[in-house]
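Hi all, posting the design record for the shared folder.

TITLE: backbone redesign
STEP: 1 of 1
STRUCTURE INPUT:
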């Protein structure tokens, strides 16, 4: 299958990047169209293109196996450039002009919300490619939105930031380095946007109740690229744990500036960008100093559900690297669409929703069982650490492939 950029066919900056996946092209059957938007250019382009790469591989495999309901699959993705103001009009176009059969979300909760609003207006099912916030599911979950990478709200407090402090709260139980002092001091530095603020509101009271001393809690403007004042404070406060949460390029910028200033906490978390294999690429990421960093939502090598093994081998063959959580998330959304529509026997919204609520889905990223709000009851997130240029799952114990190495020290 060949994918061609077709931005010239649609005028206007909001539709500057369209990607088509040509279907099987045989039998005269109408294409089954999966549509959505991703940031293929702009501040989150690396993340968006990784999700797209995973999505395209899933479409390739489905077409090789006969398509969906015997129809060749076409993937139609617009470039939203990570601009919130473009999302609604693009999803209007996907539904009213492009006549897509089913939708996938944009990348990130703030962008998913307006897209879900449009899907709700037209009563069209939308599967999340990589959205883990509770805000979209609270508004649209189970109505039109389904979120395979979001935990149900009652257990969401164990998610992301909280997962790190839960794990390190038991440091004395697994620490085998008595010379390493750990005083449960933590600094949180993240972007001033929905995902980070939501996590903060859940995490802070729980961490304080566990006895953590929060020495810094800083929400940085989303346009920030210079962190010297933040790093100066960190060097003075010396927290045991630094939790950093930024989209890809600012995560890398912060890390490089931390290394320049020689600031090394016991545990260093780069929560968003660290789970991409670009992270330790000297040209695209930060290079070998990225070893030792902890990250979240990793696509662990010891998970073999769904098409996980196929995705790893095919992606390595095509791109020369192992896929990250972004590629796996994009791929898994298409797996769910394939299975749900096939079992429903139609792309009709009510019929597909009935299957989505009823069935358990085996995907390359996680097993999936949707609750009434469209969150995944079976999602067990993973903390992994970069070691010798490989991501090693270290928590929870059921997913771990090794113990963490600490304190952090640049390679």
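Okay, here is what came back for every position:
SEQUENCE:
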């Amino acid at each position: 299958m060949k994918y061609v950029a077709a931005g010239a066919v649609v005028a206007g900056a909001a539709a500057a990047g369209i990607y088509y996946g040509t279907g099987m092209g045989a039998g005269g059957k109408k294409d089954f169209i999966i549509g959505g938007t991703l940031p293929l250019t702009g501040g989150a382009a690396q993340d968006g293109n990784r999700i797209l790469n995973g999505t395209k591989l899933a479409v390739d495999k489905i077409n090789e196996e006969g398509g969906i309901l015997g129809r060749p699959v076409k993937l139609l993705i617009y470039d939203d450039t990570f601009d919130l103001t473009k999302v609604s009009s693009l999803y209007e176009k996907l539904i009213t002009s492009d006549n897509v059969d089913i939708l996938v979300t944009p990348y990130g909760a703030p962008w998913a919300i307006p897209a879900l609003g449009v899907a709700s207006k037209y009563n069209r099912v939308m599967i999340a490619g990589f959205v883990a916030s509770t805000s979209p599911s609270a508004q649209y979950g189970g109505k039109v939105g389904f979120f395979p990478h979001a935990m149900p709200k009652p257990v969401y407090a164990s998610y992301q930031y909280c997962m790190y402090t839960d794990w390190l709260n038991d440091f004395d139980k697994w620490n085998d380095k008595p010379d390493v002092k750990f005083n449960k001091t933590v600094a949180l530095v993240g972007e001033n946007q929905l995902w980070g603020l939501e996590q903060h509101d859940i995490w802070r009271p729980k961490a304080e109740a566990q006895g953590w001393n929060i020495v810094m809690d800083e929400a940085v403007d989303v346009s920030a690229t210079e962190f010297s004042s933040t790093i100066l404070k960190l060097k003075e406060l010396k927290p045991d744990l630094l939790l950093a949460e930024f989209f890809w390029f600012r995560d890398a910028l912060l890390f490089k500036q931390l290394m320049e200033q020689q600031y090394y906490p016991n545990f260093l978390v780069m929560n968003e960008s660290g789970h991409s294999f670009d992270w330790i690429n000297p040209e695209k990421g930060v290079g070998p100093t990225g070893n030792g960093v902890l990250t979240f939502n990793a696509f662990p090598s010891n998970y073999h559900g769904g098409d996980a093994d196929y995705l790893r081998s095919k992606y390595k063959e095509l791109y020369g690297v192992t896929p990250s959580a972004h590629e796996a998330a994009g791929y898994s959304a298409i797996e769910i669409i394939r299975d749900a529509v096939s079992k429903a026997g139609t792309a009709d919204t009510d019929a597909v929703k009935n299957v989505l609520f009823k069935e358990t889905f085996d995907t390359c990223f996680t097993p999936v069982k949707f609750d009434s709000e469209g969150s995944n009851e079976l999602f067990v997130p993973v903390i992994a650490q970069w070691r010798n240029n490989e991501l090693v799952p270290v928590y929870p114990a059921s997913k771990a492939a090794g113990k963490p190495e600490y304190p952090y020290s640049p390679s």
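COMMENT: The radius of gyration is 21 Å.
Let me know if anyone wants the other runs.
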